Amino acid sequence: MKLVIAEKPSVAMALAAVLGADEKKDGYLEGNGWLVSWCVGHLLELAQPGAYGEQYVKWRYSDLPILPENWKYEAPKDKKPQLDLLCRLMKDKRVTSVVCATDVG
Predict the structure, then answer these.
(1) Are the C-beta atoms of residues 13 and 27 closer than 8 Å to each other?
(2) Are 1 and 37 within one domain?
(3) How many Å apart are CA 77 and CA 79, to the nearest integer?
(4) Which structural domain range is residue 6 located in?
(5) What is the pTM of this model?
(6) Which residue from 6, 24, 51, 60 puts its CA 20 to 30 A from 39's CA?
(7) Is the same domain home to 52 and 87?
(8) Do both 85 and 37 map to the same domain?
(9) What is the total count of domains within the chain?
(10) What is the number of helices (H) and of strands (E) in the chain?
(11) Coil, strand or helix: which one is 46?
């Protein structure tokens, strides 16, 4: 089974119609050997400065630039359920490949 991840629901619906994935599930469509789901904008964003240390919760000009050795990412609360679903689908044992059908951004 192949998983297609589109950039938004309307694109996913169009792709699913062509692929024959016509069984609606919660957050994705399935059928004809395909799972088709979508993003809802950017699912991850850079963590706020406070995630790198208490001293950055309210930073000063003397703290700049803040250049962490390893960048941290966070999912906005309203998008976390869709991110969790996509992670679950990518780990589904039936999935043999993932097709990225999003824009380059």
Answers:
(1) no
(2) yes
(3) 5
(4) 1-41+80-105
(5) 0.84
(6) 51
(7) no
(8) yes
(9) 2
(10) 2, 7
(11) strand
- Cβ-based neighbours of 68, under 8 Å, separated by 6 or more: 52
If asked whether residues 3 and 34 sit together in one domain, one would say: yes
Residue 10, number of CB atoms within 10 A of its CB: 10
pLDDT score at 105: 63
- pLDDT score at 92: 97
Using only the alpha carbons of the chain, give its radius of gyration. 18
Same domain, 84 and 99: yes
Helix or strand run (H / E) with residue 28: strand 28-31
Would you state the pLDDT for residue 59?
81
- Give me the pLDDT at residue 96, please: 98
Look at residue 86 in the predicted model and tell me its pLDDT. Answer: 98
Amino acid (1-letter code) at residue 26: D
Same domain, 5 and 20: yes
Which 3 state secondary structure label does DSSP give 101?
strand
Geometric angle at alpha carbon 43, from 40 and 44, rounded to 5°: 160
pLDDT at 103: 83
Average confidence (pLDDT) per 10 residues, the chain, 105 residues? 97 98 97 97 94 92 92 96 98 97 81
